[in-house]
């Protein structure tokens, strides 16, 4: 089994090992199902999605099970990546320069490590929202068992579940945009696993220095 | 087009206009329950189970005159029994017929995400359409009266229909038909309010119930089931009848501000990201990474 960060021929480096990629897509596909069925229950204008996916009662039946898969995947991500996701000084500096990042002025950014502060926020956002949605989701899975004198828990659960889900929609949109459209080469890293050293140097100079031992010179 | 469709005033989880909205000339109906003359005979409970062909099941006896602890998916109508002591020490047996209140602003319908699973007819009856129900239980969270009940086998929710099948044929609901004391009345909301107010006045002036009154809670827009109570200032004594019921604030917050904020953020986010791509484009060219310029080793 391959190890991550392994230098490959043709100036490439393995960023995600097979098991990391596999878990990413367990989470990815389960999230997309949850998002689609969740949106169907969110708005009458999107209810047709549930009909397209086999009927609303089927969506209601499967949504919690996909939620379990999603939660297990996010938990596994915690086990794999939480140590790399601690906020450090460079991340705080990165946050303050975010406007440059938005304008694609990557040469003005502080040297991010293996993950930049935005990716770390994505990670923690999904971890926290997963816990919120898991707890509230289990309550909503079995509304018939909620005793009437604590019905407030069910009412709060419905509200918190929707709120947390909305937060993840924001994170998800930005994540897909960054990974598929903005950072060329990022999508390949969760499919084939490798990125070019130029990619590493451009977006993760701190990480590039770690794996090559070269000092991080600012990009031309 | 069937009359039933034309008589639909509100539809749950529905996008677009309601086909029957304001197309029919119908008066609002109401059930009047005079709690002060109910003897707790349970004839209405039996009539409800009989008319709706529901199977009876074993229940829990809790040493009171109450048939079972709570209404159930197959038991929509329950006389709630409460032994109540008034301030001067008088003992009262309070018998309240509990069933769906058919709110003018139903919290269940508000919370329901499934198109057409809950409808409100022009005459005010709120009815569950189990063939469109998805079993999410949001109605349970939306109801201020603890009415919708879940069936674990069918995964659907059930409740009193106000005998909409009978009412649409010009008959009174089964419970009304069976009542031996005449404490149950059925007719237009206007007429029922008039009878109720007259009875409340009578209780105040001739029966020494200074707090007697009519229960038609404005917090849910008024109800299609109204009560005459000995004491409207203490409704909780009548088996937990809420003093001032509302559509729960969590449901209002969720279907109000959160919905608009969420929709604006999601649509704005999509448009914003698209605009960002048009304005700034991708961060780097992959070709540069794959074939670095000569002499510039990455």
What does this structure look like?
The complex is a heterodimer of chains A (220) and B (298). Chain A has 220 residues and is mainly alpha-helical. Chain A is 66% helix and 4% strand. Chain A contains 10 helices and 3 strands; from the N terminus they run ββααααααααβαα. With 298 residues, chain B is an alpha+beta fold. Chain B is 29% helix and 17% strand. Chain B has 9 helices and 11 strands. Chain B has helices at 3-6, 43-51, 107-111, 138-142, 164-167, 174-178, 189-206, 249-280, 286-290, and strands at 8-11, 29-34, 78-85, 91-98, 118-121, 126-128, 149-151, 156-158, 184-188, 213-215, 225-229. The longest helix of chain B is centred in the last third of the chain and has 32 residues, at 249-280. The N and C termini of chain B lie far apart (73 Å). At the A-B interface, helix 1, helix 3, helix 7 and helix 9 of A face helix 4, helix 8 and helix 9 of B.
């Amino acid at each position: 089994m391959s190890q991550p960060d392994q230098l490959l021929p043709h100036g490439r480096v393995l960023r995600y090992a097979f098991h990391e990629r596999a878990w990413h897509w367990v989470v990815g596909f389960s999230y997309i199902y949850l998002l689609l069925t969740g949106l169907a229950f969110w708005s009458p204008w999107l209810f047709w999605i549930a009909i397209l996916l086999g009927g609303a009662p089927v969506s209601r039946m499967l949504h919690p099970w996909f939620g379990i898969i999603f939660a297990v995947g996010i938990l596994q991500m915690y086990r794999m990546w939480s140590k790399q996701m601690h906020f450090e000084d460079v991340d705080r500096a990165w946050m303050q320069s975010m406007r440059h990042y938005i304008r694609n002025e990557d040469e003005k950014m502080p040297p991010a490590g293996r993950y930049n502060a935005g990716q770390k926020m994505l990670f923690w956002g999904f971890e926290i929202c997963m816990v919120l949605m898991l707890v509230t989701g289990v309550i909503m899975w079995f509304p018939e068992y909620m005793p009437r004198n604590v019905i407030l828990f069910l009412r709060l659960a419905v509200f918190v579940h929707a709120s947390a889900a909305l937060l993840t929609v924001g994170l998800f949109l930005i994540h897909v945009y960054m990974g598929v459209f903005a950072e060329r080469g990022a999508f390949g890293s969760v499919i084939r696993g490798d990125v070019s050293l130029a990619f590493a140097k451009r977006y993760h100079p701190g990480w590039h220095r770690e794996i090559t031992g070269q000092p991080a010179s600012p990009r031309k | 087009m069937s009359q039933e469709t034309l008589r639909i005033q509100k539809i749950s989880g529905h996008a677009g206009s309601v086909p029957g909205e304001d197309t029919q000339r119908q008066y609002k109906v109401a059930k009047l329950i005079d709690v002060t003359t109910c003897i707790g005979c349970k004839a209405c409970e039996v009539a409800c189970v009989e008319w709706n062909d529901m199977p009876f099941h074993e229940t829990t006896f809790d040493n009171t005159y109450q048939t079972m602890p709570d209404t159930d998916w197959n038991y929509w109508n329950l006389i709630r029994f409460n032994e109540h002591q008034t301030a001067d020490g008088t003992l009262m047996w309070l018998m309240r017929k509990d069933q769906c209140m058919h709110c003018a602003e139903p919290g269940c319908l508000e919370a329901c995400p499934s198109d057409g699973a809950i409808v409100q007819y022009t005459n005010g009856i709120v009815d569950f359409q189990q063939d469109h129900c998805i079993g999410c239980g949001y109605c349970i969270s939306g109801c201020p009266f603890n009415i919708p009940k879940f069936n674990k086998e069918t995964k659907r929710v059930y409740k009193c229909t106000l005998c909409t099948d009978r009412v649409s044929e010009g008959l009174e609901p089964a419970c009304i038909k069976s009542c031996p004391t005449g404490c149950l009345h059925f007719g237009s909301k206007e007429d029922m309010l008039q009878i109720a107010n007259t009875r409340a006045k009578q209780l105040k002036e001739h029966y020494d119930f200074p707090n007697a009154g009519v229960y038609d809670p404005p917090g849910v827009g008024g109800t299609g089931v109204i009560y005459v109570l000995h004491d409207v200032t203490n409704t909780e004594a009548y088996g937990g009848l809420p003093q001032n019921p509302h559509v729960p604030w969590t449901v209002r917050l969720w279907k109000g501000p959160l919905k608009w904020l969420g929709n604006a953020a999601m649509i704005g986010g999509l448009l914003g990201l698209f605009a960002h791509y048009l304005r700034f484009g991708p961060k780097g060219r992959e070709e540069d990474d794959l074939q670095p310029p000569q002499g510039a080793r990455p």
